[in-house]
C-alpha cells in the first residue's frame, strides 16, 4: 500500500473511532497491520504494546503535514514494569488526505 493510501486509511479509522488514545493505540496498530500487511512486533512482556515502525512513521508524517494533532499523556498511576510511562494521543484535525 502506498503512503497516500495508508494516510487515508488512518484518517478514516481515526474518524470512525474518535482518534486514538491509550486503548485505541493497540486497536489501531492491529487494524493497520491487517490492512497494510506492515511488519510488527508484539513484545512478550506487554502484549498490548504492538510495535509497528511503519505506523509510527505514517503518524509522524501526518502530524508534520497538519492532518492530525498529537500530545503526550503521562501514565503515572499505570507505569510499572513493562508498562509505558506515557503515550501519545492522536486526533484528526482536518481532512488533508483523500
Summed up:
This protein has helices spanning 3-17, 22-36, 53-65, and strands at 68-74, 86-92.
Please explain how this structure is put together:
Helix content is 44%, strand content 14%. It is built from three helices and two strands. A two-stranded antiparallel sheet has the order 1-2. The longest helix has 15 residues, at 3-17. The chain is globular, with a radius of gyration of 13 Å.
What's the SSE blueprint?
Elements: H1 3-17, H2 22-36, H3 53-65, E1 68-74, E2 86-92
Helix pairs in contact: 1-2
Q: Alpha-carbon distance between the termini? A: 15 Å
Question: What is the global morphology?
Answer: globular
SSE pattern: HHHEE
Nearest-integer average pLDDT:
79
Number of strands: 2
Beta content comes to 5-15%
Query: Taking Cα atoms only, what radius of gyration do you get, to the nearest Å?
Result: 13 Å
Strand order of the largest sheet: 1-2
The class by helix and strand makeup works out as alpha+beta
Number of helices: 3
Largest sheet: 2 strands, antiparallel
Helix proportion: 40-55%
Low-confidence stretches: none
Keywords:
98 residues, alpha+beta, 3 helices, 14% strand, 44% helix
